[in-house]
Amino acid sequence: MSSNATAKIGLLKIDTEGAELLVLRGAQRMLAQDRPAIMYEECEETYQLFGYTITSARAFLQQFGYTVHPIDNLGHYNNAIAVPEEQHVDFLTKGS
């Protein structure tokens, strides 16, 4: 690899107990340039402690061309993956 080459981030895992949107806001350049898939937790209760909602977090990701796919529902929170619209997501479909 040349000294001018840069690595591209393919996956971002966020688990910050409610501060996920703050992390995403700080990662805007990476989201636009690298277009990584993003695994994170959605929890209305902890999001509200930071002044936002699941709807506003999803809207932020949608502004960057991401589609959010809830992975499971564990009661008071969900695991989710956000994938750039241009990426294929067959691995998320259940059953075959």
Which helices and strands appear, and what pairs or packs with what?
Elements: E1 11-14, H1 20-26, H2 28-33, E2 37-42, H3 44-49, H4 54-63, E3 66-73, E4 78-84
Overview of this protein structure:
This protein is α+β, with helices and mostly antiparallel strands and 96 residues long. It has one domain (11-85): Translation Initiation Factor IF3. Helices cover 30% and strands 26% of the residues. The protein has four helices and four strands. The protein has helices at 20-26, 28-33, 44-49, 54-63; strands at 11-14, 37-42, 66-73, 78-84. The chain has a four-stranded mixed sheet with strand order 1-2-4-3, with helices on one face.
Brief rundown of the structure:
It contains 4 helices and 4 strands. With 96 residues, the chain is of the alpha+beta class.
Round the Cα radius of gyration to an integer and report it. 14 Å
Total domain units: 1
Helicity, as a percent range = 25-40%
Number of strands: 4
Ranges where pLDDT stays below 50 over 5 or more residues in a row are none
Mean pLDDT value: 88
The CATH architecture term is 2-Layer Sandwich
User: How do the strands of the widest beta sheet line up side by side?
Assistant: 1-2-4-3
Q: From N to C, what is the helix and strand string? A: EHHEHHEE
Q: Largest sheet, described in full?
A: 4 strands, mixed
> What fraction strand?
25-35%
